[in-house]
Design goal:
The protein is α/β, with parallel strands linked by helices. The chain folds into 2 domains: 48-152, Roll (Diaminopimelate Epimerase, Chain A, domain 1), CATH 3.10.310.70; 159-447, Metal-dependent hydrolases (TIM Barrel), CATH 3.20.20.140. It is built from 17 helices and 20 strands. It has helices spanning 47-55, 65-74, 101-107, 127-132, 144-152, 159-175, 191-199, 217-220, 269-281, 294-308, 328-336, 345-358, 361-365, 371-376, 393-402, 420-426, 429-433; strands at 2-6, 9-14, 19-23, 28-32, 35-38, 40-45, 82-88, 112-117, 122-125, 141-143, 178-186, 206-212, 231-239, 286-291, 317-322, 339-343, 379-382, 452-455, 472-477, 480-484. Strand 7, helix 3 (101-107) and strand 8 (112-117) form a beta-alpha-beta unit. The chain starts with a strand and ends with a strand. Bound molecules: zinc ion. Zinc ion binds at residues 44, 46, 184, 385.
């Protein structure tokens, strides 16, 4: 295929039996024997969070609380006296017990330590961090709103620090063929950092910002939707519950491994409707609401049903982020209401063993649904939820198609696997549609934006076990070469 690009858009497409040729106004790039696809979109990530993950100590591979402390002791930190780290996951530890603050206090008596659990919904902190956040906890394990409070006590990152995080994330993404991300939970305080990079042509990827709405952040800071080629304020983001790993996902039936708990519902349907209608009145066109447990999914679906009946709610983009456990009756309603299910296939791969503990067999049947969503007519957009997982669509496609958990050798609930073509759509055209941009992105077509990825192997014809080994040879964003192997 030979593609001619003019002013960032595809001007012409010609046949080319030898591979891929890209012609821009100033250059010609040849990639013999390769295949060209629309650039990937990661429909759910956290740009600043991933940059932070790249800069801060990672606890992802630790196998004990002691090992976490060892990693923290060996890391270097800024002067402010705060240590932020991410990624611990007690379900991967020997013994599998949640840690407590004692060991942190022993090694860090004066420095405030905040170690985020891998799901970002709970944290392990020491007494100094509790003192500075004016919180009290006998264990040093904080959930949801308390975790938010301790994070809010930390010093604000400077514009330069934010921009370092953004460019690090963007540079990582283009290496994986990602040309656009839907950035979730964007603080109004970060927006200038994105805008300034975009205006200087220094934003490596396109970013659709979904601004925090849980505490009306966008409204309080006077942030309104705005368009832009590389950075767009696209929508608002709410949370209706927590996460399965932290047992804060809101379930209809109690947790299998804690019969006293139904998880934490953070917003009622009425609260969701009120917050969303305020956003619609201000002109926001894309509404994203996080729901992991089936009780949260029920409440969000109820709210979306009401919102669809509002005069300005009938044709906006409504998205359920994660949609991790959804009852059969709600799947049908989501399809009928044209709701986008924004799903992260790699979560199933990482979560399988943990989910089997947390959920009973009925809940399990409704968990990590992919094929049943598509079969029911639900719209699906795919992402990774970086920094929780890595932004890597080929890993996501491998998860979608083979669904083999880490450490396992066969598919997990293989009835939910989807095809390579469906997976590619979820990471391209369907993803763009979930930000209302499907009319100009997500397809190699004349008139479409020249957001393109060149791969060394065709995912639609290679063996499924080779999907994750496909190499990205080049990534073009708006016709500009942003990565070349
Ligand atoms: Zn997320």
């Amino acid at each position: 295929m030979e593609v001619h690009i003019e002013r960032g858009r595809i001007r012409a497409i010609l046949p080319n039996a030898l591979g891929v040729t890209i012609r821009t106004e100033s250059s010609v790039f040849n990639f013999p024997g390769s295949v060209l696809l629309p650039g990937f979109v990661d429909s759910h990530g956290h740009v600043i969070g991933f940059g932070t993950r790249l800069l801060q100590p990672s606890l992802h591979n630790a196998t004990s609380a002691e090992m976490c402390v060892e990693i923290l002791r060996n890391a270097t930190f800024p002067d402010e006296g705060w240590i932020l780290a991410m990624g611990w996951n007690e379900t991967n530890w020997i013994g599998g017990r949640i840690p407590d603050k004692t060991i942190l206090d022993e090694y860090f008596p004066d420095v405030a330590v905040v170690a985020m659990r891998v799901d970002g919904h709970s944290s392990w902190v020491n007494s100094e961090a509790l003192r500075r956040a004016k919180l009290d906890s006998s264990t040093g394990i904080l959930y949801e709103t308390e975790t938010q409070r301790v994070l809010a006590s930390m010093p604000e990152p400077s514009l330069e620090e934010l921009q370092k995080c953004i460019t690090l994330t963007g540079d990582y993404c283009v290496q994986k063929g990602i040309t656009e991300v839907h950035d979730m939970d964007v603080s109004p305080r970060w927006i200038d950092a994105f805008r300034d990079l975009a205006e200087r042509g220094a934003l490596p990827i396109r970013v659709q910002s979904f601004v925090s709405a849980q505490n009306d952040e966008w409204a309080l800071q006077g942030v309104l939707p705005s368009g832009g080629e590389f950075h767009r304020l696209a929508g608002t983001k709410l949370y209706s519950d927590g996460a399965l790993g932290s047992r804060t996902a809101a379930l209809l039936e109690p947790y299998n491994d804690d019969p006293s708990s139904l998880g934490t519902l953070l917003l009622t349907s009425e609260q969701i409707v009120a917050k969303v209608s305020k956003a619609l009145d201000a002109g926001w066109q894309c509404i994203a609401v996080h729901a992991i447990g089936d009780r949260a999914a029920r409440k969000v679906t109820d709210a979306f049903e009401t919102i669809r009946r509002l005069p300005n709610g009938s044709d906006v983009v409504l998205r359920m982020e994660h949609a991790q456990i959804v009852s059969e009756s709600d799947v049908e309603r989501l399809a009928r209401l044209n709701v986008w299910c924004s799903i992260q296939p790699s979560h199933a791969i990482s979560d399988a063993a943990m989910a089997e503990q947390r959920l009973n067999s009925i809940q399990m049947k409704n968990a990590y649904r992919w094929k049943s969503f598509i079969d029911a007519g639900c719209r699906v957009a795919a992402g990774s939820d970086f920094p929780i997982e890595l932004p890597d669509p080929l890993l996501g496609i491998d998860a979608f198609v083979r669904r083999i958990p880490h450490g396992a050798n066969h598919s997990w609930y293989d009835g939910e696997c989807i095809t390579v073509n469906q997976s590619l759509q979820a990471f391209t055209s369907w993803g763009h549609q979930a930000a209302d941009l499907g009319y100009r992105r997500g397809s190699v077509e004349v008139g479409f934006d020249a957001d393109l990825v060149v791969l060394d192997t065709n995912p639609t014809t290679c063996k499924p076990e080779n999907l994750s080994g496909i190499r990205v040879l080049a990534t073009f964003v708006a016709g500009q070469l942003r990565y070349c192997l």
